[in-house]
Amino acid sequence: MRPLRKGLKIRFRIFLVISLCLMPGIWGCASYCATQDTLNSSEFSTPPAKGCKVYAPSSDPAKDVPFKVRAETQSEDGISVSAAVLSDYESERIFGVDLARNGIQPVWLEIGNTTDKPVTLIYVATDPGYYSPNEAAYTNYGYASPVNEEMNEYFNKHSIRRGIPAGGALSGFFYTNWDPGIKYLNVSIYGEEQEKNFVFYFVIPGINLDYQRVDWDSLYKKDEYVNYETEEELRRVLEAVPCCATRKDGTGENDALNFFVIGDTDNIISAFIRRGWDVTEPISVSSGLRAFKAYFSGARYRTSPMSSVFVYKRSQDIGLQKARSTIHERNHLRLWLMPVRYQGMDVWIGSVSRDVGSYFTFRTPWLSAHAIDPDLDEARTYLVQDLLFSGGVEKFGYLKGIRPSTPDDPHRNFMKQSWWTDGYRAVFLFGDDPVTLNELEFFGWEWAGEDGARVIEFIKAMSAGRKEGRPAAPEPVKPD
Amino acid sequence: MKSKILESAVWIILAAAAGCGGSYTPKPPEEVSFLDRAETQSRGGLTVTVAVLSREESEEVFGVDLAANGVQPVWLDIENNTGKPYFFMPIALDPDYFSPNEVAFMNHFKFNRSANREMDEQFSKYGIQIEFIMPGERDKGFVYTNLDPGLKFVNVTLYEIDGTENFFFYFEVPGIQPDYENVDFTALYTEDELVHIDDEEELRKALEALPCCTTGSDGGGGGDPINIILIGDPDDISSAVVRRKWDVTEADTGKFKFDLGRAFSPESYRTFPMASLYLFGRRQDVSLQKSRRETDAAYRQRNTLRLWLTPFRYQGKTVWAGAVSRDIGSDLRIRKYWFAAQEIDPDIDETRDYLVEDVILSQNVDKLGYVVGVGVSTSGDPRYNLSKLPWWSDGYRAVLLFGKDQITLGDLGYFEWEDVDAVYDGETGGDVNGAADEGAQGK
């Protein structure tokens, strides 16, 4: 597809140049009316003069748009932070312009400081590419529009500032880069000899997500869940899980089921979101159309729908994806809830693979399919690194369960794409508290890779050492 | 069956449109000279060697133009002579690194299966193994990273069960000509012209006495404020800003000015040339920029930082005066150079505070402080730069002292000069000759 896409790119550039030349002509006409006295009246339904738009931002955002009902508050040592993320509709209603179109998502913050020292909000820690108020306004300017000034004033007036004086409070909007579905928000505050992080996750209204259509209570009956208490039992159960996803009727071998996650759903999803994974839209007419368009333009579509893959005769419960620069390249994974509990925690089967590009096909309704990286373990290794760095994983290990295959004798999925693996599956156990890499624990089962046998011996010795309170490494492994 | 026929019909049309085949002729890495530029660090039994390939080198090694698809291979050679196994984690080097098969797929020929298969094998063979490196063993190969033009920061993270070891490298990648290469830094000041300062008070006076603003080439005209002072070894400063994803800037050779196609190409906007401003009677010595990479407007939305080496040496460290501003978009007014028609954020302190936050998050800053010297201006009574764009400021300059150790925010030290908190409260500093800044009062 490369030469074709390049051709498109050049044509797109030519189009851009032409449209840039035409823009003043077109936008100049269709632009805003001269300033009207809209700020003082709370009437939004005032009909605009013929042929032009009225710039009518909300005079009292919190009153006009009830975004504050979704606000969450956290406090620690005299500092309290409330936050809420605006949906695309809400931000257009408040600011009077379509901010989402330009990739801006305002976040409302309120910070109270009851300590006796001033503190500072670090914008860059929340979003290293945040928009300054003037910049956010400028991206929405109309050409030679009479209301540009007004817009600029509005964006500045409603923005939050950095410094919170001792005993004071601040509130306002912060203009971040747009995120679809779920937004991870890290509000970082520092002052003399202190540094605090407040972490929030918001589901942003205005988008359908695949897991919302799952009826979690009816997946399994209460007595269908089997709880396991010991690691050995868990290992046996997970190893017995079939190698692969199936057809809807439970036959055939599709994608590999190459990892498991254990833990509280919130902890699992938040760890993924922190590492930049996005949620997924269910397949629908509009999302399919968007995926089809993105396929031809090569645009980024971060929540693009995923095809159904079946385990337990049902399609995935949750799909997650991490896009690179185009729709063609992303890592994606699917999760299915198991009727199994480990020490009371939920257990999920997962299937992860890396999309390396896409090709034209009649096998899907939107005429394109993703080519996966046939070296499936590469995607698993990526996931292992990503989740270990998320700080959410408490315990980690590998076990077997897939028939090993090689490039010469590969597995094939239903799209007739080949894949191969060493046969290992990764197991992640998520905890409530952040875990740094050096606190990570391991399941003493097996280890993937050529030196797996030696690595697992080392890890077992190490874990035993930790248990006995021996801090340092065990006897060094002799090099061959 | 019908769909098969349709599918092949589409393929035939595509083939006619795109042309067929191609040959694949890579060269073994030993024959390509990138290893000459490799750097090695050793610590506690671990030896890490890193080299970053230029566009030409990667084309020689892999037989295809990887840079066209935004891929930059990094060569790694890791030797483990400790008693423990170490796990190499490329995700810390680039969270969006490419897999070997992915890079091969990008470069596949349309109708040359055997060459494509060869390409797959080649990329996989050269890719580094991502697994535990056992004691006494060695792991080498390429990581396929996203392309960084000019300067590249490489972080090699090796994990063992009790913790991680990090090796930081940064490289100048051949292929572009950064503007600072045209400056002969040793010839800027003679030994007598250098002013050595050891005392904080003296430093404060020297920095306050710097000119308020940049000028035009003739020394006249309004300019941008000198609102940033960076103090430290050039290596420490550049490693900190490159870590925060600032890019170098290409020398303005005059060739780019009217090259619209170049301006719209996402590969090169990150190092797009910058207009000249003058201080001490010369153009900026170093220009850095950080552009928005996610949107198509990236080449006109960027933060720019211009730096001049001053004659001061504080405790032996170099002192740089800087002007930072935020380009928020371009307007259609005609200027001397078309790309200089950038609209800047007139609230110039906002951009200064951005830079301060950004570099202290690199954890390389030991001390932060503020001095006066710019002079107060307000949104009601702004000053104008060379492009006749308004700006206003509370009059403070941020002073950042860089060190070698990692400093977290809680441990950050301060120069006890102007009240830092007052800066953030929106109070104005310096010679108060204007009314209070109205824009900064409301909250």
Brief descriptors of the model:
heterodimer; A: 480 residues; alpha+beta; Immunoglobulin-like; 2 domains; ten-stranded mixed beta sheet; four-stranded antiparallel beta sheet; globular; disordered C terminus; B: 443 residues; 22 strands; 21% helix; 29% strand
- Overall helicity of chain B: 10-25%
What structural category do the secondary elements of chain A indicate?
Answer: alpha+beta
Beta strand count of chain A: 22
Give the number of DSSP strands of chain B. 22
Estimate nothing, just give the exact number of structural domains of chain A: 2
Task: Report what the structure shows.
The complex is a heterodimer of chains A (480) and B (443). Chain A has 480 residues and is α+β, with helices and mostly antiparallel strands. Chain A has 2 domains: 58-203, Immunoglobulin-like (Sandwich); 210-449, no CATH class. Helices cover 26% and strands 27% of the residues of chain A. Chain A contains 12 helices and 22 strands. Chain A has helices at residues 2-30, 61-64, 88-95, 123-126, 133-138, 148-157, 216-219, 231-239, 265-274, 285-297, 376-389, 452-467; strands spanning 72-76, 79-85, 104-113, 119-121, 163-164, 169-177, 182-191, 194-203, 226-228, 259-262, 278-279, 310-311, 314-315, 318-323, 330-342, 345-360, 368-372, 393-400, 411-412, 418-419, 424-430, 441-442. The model of chain A is unreliable at 24-31, 34-50 and 472-480 (pLDDT under 50). In chain B, 21% of the residues lie in helices and 29% in strands. Classes of the chains: A alpha+beta (480), B alpha+beta (443). At the A-B interface, helix 1, helix 4, helix 5, strand 6 and strand 16 of A face helix 1, helix 3, strand 16, helix 8 and helix 9 of B.
